[in-house]
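Write out this protein's structure.
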Amino acid sequence: MDAAEVERFFTRSDGSYLFARWGRPIAPIVFGVEDQTLSVVKGAFEAVCAMAGHHMTETDPELGANVMVFFFRDWRELLDVRDLDRLIDGLNPLVAKLSDADANQYRVFRFDDAGAIQACFIFLRMDEVLSAIPADTLALGQVVQSMVLWSDQAFTDQSPLGQLDDGRVVVRPEIGALIRVAYDPVMPGMAQDPSHALRLTARMAVAQEGTN
């Protein structure tokens, strides 16, 4: 990818550039699924964190769990989740908006004082579309989209995942490379200047040269 392509992944629909990555180890918890699916979701987090060179932990010292993944059938079910309205400002109008839009997924991020990702809430309403997606594919796609703060338009035209000849679904190579360099220790946890995309592109080129 060239710098313009990289910049597009973090340029929001209002034209602003905004990037953020996790500033702490990820501690996920999953609600609304059986143990088998739970292990699939946690396995996806482990795989993507390993790819990024980022860490996972059992417990976040401040929040307990800092990634909460909810599987449900109706948006109104979220209103019955204890204390969720304390974690997400404006939960009631958000649920009404998503319900009216017939949305099947949504992600809410919280950030620390430095602008890095502090927490993420992933909501998946299991309609016919999501229910038809294999659990491992659904989990991998959601984890990739929660590892960094992508543009709201980043994956409207193409999924971050691809399929190998043997049928396995994997993170697209260019997306995996972008996540890896985003987690390079020399890169910032948050950036609002498009020049950040130039730095990402340069590091991707260096990484590519190193594999040749």
